[in-house]
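[SOLVED] Need 3D model of a two-part complex

Original post:
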Amino acid sequence: MSFHGGLKLAHHKESLMGEEVVEAPIPEHLYLSLRMNQGDEARAVVSVGEYVLKGQCIAVADDDMVLPVHAPTSGTVTDISVQPSAAPDAAMATVITITTDGLDRTIEPMVVNIRSHQDIIELMQKSGIAGMGGAGFPAYMKYKQPVKTLIINGAECEPYIACDEALMLAKPEAVISGTDWMRQACQATTAVIAIEDTSTGIQAALEAAIQKSSMNHILVKKIPSIYPIGGEKQVIEVLTGQQVPEGQTPLVLGLLMQNVATAVALADVIESGLPLLNRFITITGDAVSRPVNVNAMIGTPLSDLLSLTEVNYTAIKRLVIGGPMMGFAMPNDAIGIDKTSNCLLAMKEELLPSGNMPCIRCGDCVQVCPQELLPQQLFWYISGESNDLEKARDHYVFDCIECGACAYVCPSHIKLVDYYRYAKAELRYLDFKKQHSDHAKQRFDARENRLERIKAERMAKRHDKTAKLKDKQVAKKEISDALARIKKIKDGQSP
Amino acid sequence: MKLETPTAPHQHNRRSVRQVMAWVLLALLPAVVAHVFYFGTGVLIQGVLATAFAMFFEYLSLKLRKQPIKLFLTDLSAPVTAWLLVLCISPIAPWYVSVIGMFFAIVIAKHLYGGLGHNIFNPAMVGFAVILIAFPQSMSLWLAPWGISQPVLSFSDALTWIFFGGGQWIDAMTAATPLSALQIGQQQGMTYSEIITQPIFGNFGGLGWEWVANWLFLGGLLLLFKKIITWHVPVTLLLVACLFSYPFYAFDPDSFLSPMQHVFSGGLMMAAFFIATDPTSGCSSKKGKMIFAAGVAILTVLIRQFGAFPDGVAFAVLLMNMSAPLIDQLTIPKPYGQQGKGSVSEP
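Solution:
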């Protein structure tokens, strides 16, 4: 099974294979962003000057889309301010700075007592487990209904990134136990761990761990290493031959997918009783002479990570969190990593001149698009003078997964993904505005109708009365009645 | 540390428009060599002439449109247009023919519509159609292919012929194109089987022409291999041309061309790999490309058999260029998740 399009990209991770994972020391400062990737923030419950312990909750979630934030080590809160964060586009976020004391003093671990699948789901929420592969949504939110099969995604999203592979090699037992906890949480009968066919030794390591724990309902399957195989939709198509219907989640196919790092995070939480505090991250790029995989605390600044290996600092032109295809360039190195940061790329390559040449409609982008869109047509409608965004909607711009394959092959070097992100944002805004004005119009129409109706009723009443007065007898009676009423009122008012 | 924050992707396959155009030029090379082999060096003179004027008109248009000159002048798109046109016209056509062709191709068809990537019509075919209508005689007067009249026209003879008109040796050296020979012969009441016994015909097309077509095919394979074009247009175009012309031929082989004649004479092979595959003036989706190619094939066969012009490829392409936006609108492919490839399971 395969999916449409895609790219065969150089992996750039040969030198990382079989290397030990480096345990990052406690950095002097931790920068903990309270922002979820989609924009909502947790609410800080500590203040500047406060001493916090490892595992202590420092920000709480006020709604379902947000996860609590915990201190990864002990120290003093020295700043709470709005700064660029590791979120997409280095978005501004409230960041809590902890100046560490190196003592790593820990809170009393939670007593983990699991009696039902609901307990596991609550634990995921309480311990701040986000999807660690990509979008970073709260992991617990996926468990809405029972499914048949749980898929654990062990395919790296992009070239250079090797942290998930390192994780599976370093902690195969945790992968398997985390997978099984998740399987129980979604009440699936089987679980499949998908790994790339270029990986070596992972399948054997995982299968040994399965044997050891006799969890034969967990399978390991290899999938072709074609970008963007790490994408949820593409993994599902390759494994099942099915496509997730538009506007739906994999739940409708009886599937639930989580990243392998998320599964390990759950296993760690259950074992230690402490919330999610660390993650594996790859430090690589052509400005790094010795790439490494690091186990680092959430909030570790990029500068501290770079200091763990041999880096050609003066050559660095770009610092990218994530991979070379979808990652986000960071404005400086004093930004702390978040729960979704799987890779730090230090790049020295000069940028290609972009957007100088017009689109020649060569169709290379169509060949590689995994969503089977027509990227050149989308570009035409979005960039055109008419700015015909509705046409972009007709050409399914909302199905774009922003993998960047089109921009990678574009011979005119057009930043295609930027156009699609713009179109999506603009269309969402226009829809929002239209919804508003539709509402206002509805209210206005309702009021107009009401006034019209009242007016009509009054007219009818008056009409009835004037019709009656045409009869002299009735008219006389009406008049005398009216006079009597007036007299009565007057009498009543001045007794 | 303060850094630039460009957007993703942060890597590129490093192919550029200029490279794409260079590959197309390279793919035309075998056909040019075959052309020289059978028809002499006239095509080279025409090529240099057309390229020079293409660049001149390109420069002029860019200047008038206030576009970056160096960037576009070096993208190699003008030489591609020039060589495509040159391979369509007679190697001994007067100099002004290719100059006028280039004017209409570059200035009218390309830059008046917005320049590179914005032309509705294939520039080379616009240029070709204009000179086909304006100079029908020059266009049908070809050199006789090698094998009929030896030796081949020398370089200086070709030069004289192109710039100062023909000499007395004209009749010995020139011949009609195979397709116009067929048309003329038919008008004189000859049957096709009689006409193709003439020496200008080869094994399955025109002598010489069939080899140029073969080498165009080879160049086309190079473009396929380099993924500059996809199979959809050439395969559909050639297949439909054969399938559509065969019933006519089977019905009356004396009045209708065989599918082989259709494919190997005139401009069909060129259209299949180099003209109808032009992405700017063609269709976007796979289905659209196939409809486009089928349209070119059917119209070409119809014009050749029933039209006033011996070859109809240029007009067929231009007619389909007009239809391309409509075809595109009607063939928007369904993306992932909307193709019915997901059966909803019961929870």
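Edit: Chain A touches chain B through 80 residues (CB under 8 Å).
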